[in-house]
Known about the structure:
By secondary structure, chain A is an alpha+beta fold. Chain A is built from twelve helices and twelve strands. The model of chain A has no long low-confidence stretch (mean pLDDT 97). Chain B is an alpha+beta fold. Chains A and B meet through α11 and α12 of A and α3, β25 and α16 of B.
Amino acid sequence: MKAFGYSSPDSLDAALAAIGPQARPLAGGTDLLTLIKADLAAPERLVNVKALLPRGIEAKPEGLEIGALTTLAEIEEHPVVRDGYAALAQAVSLAASPQIRNLATVGGNLLQRPRCWYFRNARIDCWLKGGDECPAGDGQNRNHAILRGGPCYAVHPSDIVPALMAFDAAVRVVGAAGERWIELEDFMQPPTEERRTETVLAPDELVTAVRLPPHPEPTRSVYRKAMDRKIWAFALAGVACALRLSGRKIAHARIVLSGVAPVPMRAEAAERELLGREPSPERFAAAAGAALQDARPLRHNGYKVPLTMALVRQALTTLTE
Amino acid sequence: MTTRLEGPDKVTGKAVYSSDVRLPGQLYAKILRSPHPHAKVLRIDTSRAEALAGVRAVVSAMNGPDISWHDDTRLLDSTVRYVGDEVAALAADSEEIAQDALRLIEVEYLPLAFDVARGKAGDSKVQERGNVLTGLREADVTVEETYTTGTALHNALESHGCTAVWDGGELTLYESTQGIFAVRDEVAEKLGLPKDQVRVITPHMGGGFGAKQIAWKHSVIAALLAKRAGRPVQLMLDRTEENLASGSRNATRQHVRIGAKRDGTLTAIDARIEFQSGAYKVGGEDSDLTGTYMTLYRCENVRAEQTSMKTNAGASVAFRGPGYVEANFALESAMDELARKLGMDPIDLRLRNYAVRDQSEDKPYTSPQSLRRCIERVAEVFDWKRKRKGIGFAAHDWLAGGGWPPATVEVTLRAGRAEVLVGVQDIGTGPRTALAQIAAAELGIPLDAVDVRLGDTKPGLYGPTSSGSTTLATIGPALAEAARKAKKTGHGRAERGENPKDKTIRTCGAQCAEVEVDLETGEVTVLRVVAAHDCGRIINPLLVASQVIGGVTQGIGFALCEERVMDERLGESLNANLEEYKVATVRDIREIVNATESMPDLEANALGTKGIGEPPIIPTAAAIANAIFDATGVRIRDLPITRDKLLNELNQGQTTFSDNGARNKRGLSLIPGS
């Protein structure tokens, strides 16, 4: 860790004026501080935004609005989330540890960096840190991407993001130019040559809220996560599913995969396999196959293909039992 | 039930650990470690670090004393042999300044060729009796397989470290160690001091599991920095250093052949073993992988050969049941495979072959039938015969547990209280409590009238290192004798007598595991482990249960999720942390049943007690692997048994995933283009 300055502006505008590539906003700090301690980030200044952004969950006509500073623990315990957004409540309860959930915010959760063991080791040169190559491509890649991988094969570690995406969440972003809403699916983007991060957020912008549009009852949802142990581990693979039946047919389906791609991704081909059809084991197997049809496993992560397919099938089965 | 006497101090934070020590003027030290798996150190420039305000002392190969260390290398060598090897160190007013100062040290390295994959063959050891080839020819059924185990890291809650303080020419080390006398003697030798000018104090420690039974470099480095600065120096390793440079359980490759008659009688056991010892041989308890092959089962023709393989990785060191844990996985997996081939119940096969005599030393055991008792006990408590899918069994023995003399104990009675003075340390297993119970019982006084003093070399009462699960069996009998003397005269002193010469003291045991496997996701859930071990007379049932539960938990980690991951191209560990090196959590253990019975072994010592610290981890991995086979029909011979290995095997030759009408031999082949 290198020494850094600290400021606590008294308005959002002042905070927006203060932040930039070398001045990072600090909320829960559960990811930023680990990056700093591991010499993966060395900002000159931390800008405290803990008193400036909204915190709490509010049911509005446009949907459920979750302030950026809302902690994961608060989401987990919220009755509306538990009742109407089961996948989100489950994803939160499977994320990190209770201590971290008490500190970590939903805004920070979207912005956290990958846990790739090459990326997280400051001694190792890697593409995501600005280098030329990804050492995971032909290295120890059992935890890495099987979909949309390359040049970086790190996976986004969030359990929350796939659950939010299953509810078509949008993100409110503020910057000097004002405020805008972005679909979460568009907000999360694999890193590019020019932007080696996992979101389109600019260094001088802040996430202020996440919104889940209202969904007609009865939409059922579930989050399933595979780990190397029962708890306190990042997903080897995960799937968030939301499903609504009309009569006996599937009228709405969202399948979002985590732990298998640079950012959580909707499996639209799988969703198409379900729409307008009746639930059945064969249908679910077809959806699972479609979800992984573009998979390109690396040397050590081929197991993620059958694993993710099984999670998709099991999630769909759970929702239609 | 007697609970730990030191429990309240621990849960209230009153207990002082090495990192809690605060002395006037204390400095904080950090070590600069090699970023290369193998390199020549060409140049070290510490001038910028020395110039930083708050830096009080710096030591490196360029300015340090020439102190020899393991093999024929130096304390700060001009060649580094693994990522994490010590290059230089400094002490400063705060940890933060020390960390900043490390960045200012300039080192020029010449990288050299390295190997972290298989390694270069080093020492070999062979044990043999009879003729294995003859035995295999006589066999009706044979099993021949290769088993591998990964590198496991101790990850005691408290890292290695100490606080060093000089008073004139005398050095005191507040050290997190399981061997206060071992550290005293080694540090005195390295610094060229008489032993009585080094004092080692360990009031409490947060675990060692074998990795703290020797003096590591940090102790001498802290002493050198404290001498130079003229102030106390604290040097605690952080978790990364702990996982790079303070020992590991050696990875192994074991080629095993077993032969048996149709009725299950063993005719031959043959094991050829390679184990990775890392960059240095650091001392402490040896990893004996051959031992259990020679002794667990009755067999005339046995050969076991182990070869250490040097790699450019942190050194291996004793880890709870060293050698036996790794070897037990292979031997007891092979025995399970043999039982299946024979169509025999795995427990019946063991009952036909368990040893009642030490065949290596050609001596009887002090408790020849205790292994049988453990096997029968565990089968009964587990309800083995009403078996369901997913159950596995393993037996084990262990080379130690019977006490390692010498040791001296003093008991003094004063104003209705008894003071017990011993030279051992509490590695965390609770000897304070067990020793107080022995003294109270012998003296006929209440437990709270006994004060146990331990963890200090100053009184000069030697006690052994906490290794081999021997503390209670070493100290206990001498303490009982000293207490008897004190009862008469007010003061008693006793030496631990020799172990019996004509018989071998053995600890042993057996475990059954029940698992559930999701055949689609490869998730393994260990539903239940039942454990019965022979630890002689049980002094404190709660402390025994603690060791059984802890050992089985660690065994579940070894079986299912713990493994150091190295990048072979970079020579670098990728998971030197507690995030990606995954120890078992409270959620990974459902039910652990301690079925251990008290079986006083009065031929071992007058108190009849033996150790239990290490044995419970030994058979767990094999029992779980055997249960996974029972549940799935898939035999994984490579620890840890992770989802990737299970799913790759489960999907082999099966048509599990039939999406889009595609039929697949392997799970992966249905993916277009792959």
